[in-house]
Amino acid sequence: MSDSERNVTPTPADDLDGYDDLEDFDADGFLQEWQEADRTAVELIREALPDVVEATAPQEALATAVQRVREHLTDWPYRHLASAADWSRRLPADDETLWVQAAGALVSMHGESGLGSHEESSLMALQHADWAGAIIGLARAGVGTRAWPGDLFELADKCPEIEGSYEDDDREPIEFAFELMVPIWEALGALDEHRRLTPLGRWGLPRALAWAWDGSLDEE
Hints:
disordered N terminus
């Protein structure tokens, strides 16, 4: 979140500020702190959503969504997801892996997304607590829960696992970033045409965050 007090665990993003000479910057330390933030966020999701961790994928919905991705890789939004997930060499053969990577590709980009610089920077500005708070709240509220950008902001703000609260000027940039993601998650079948959480989304979006942060809800 834009307010550092809202982080699941302190992230090192602000450590870049104040370095007049990059020789003073501890790149290894920065990476270690970021990796620790990733691990903490994944564990938070695991502890907050034990029923999601135990859930199995809705196979029919998953197969339909994955087929759509495979058949439309050159179309929006799938081409951006393929690039951000770094599928340039080959697509994941496993349906669950492909869907999870597609849904999480823009959370932590493994390659160039092909989005505009403003859109990409807006997504990159979201912190672990923004994503985790919104998705924990959404999954906990259950299938059929509205997931418009304003709803996701409110879910993140009220998530009991996340300490602190948003400032008034946090809303606009965070909702803008979520507005970029909502139609993409709809295209993947995580949300329905009314932007409400589907069974596939409840199973998969927490896993997509875990994958984006180099973790897994399906492995201890």
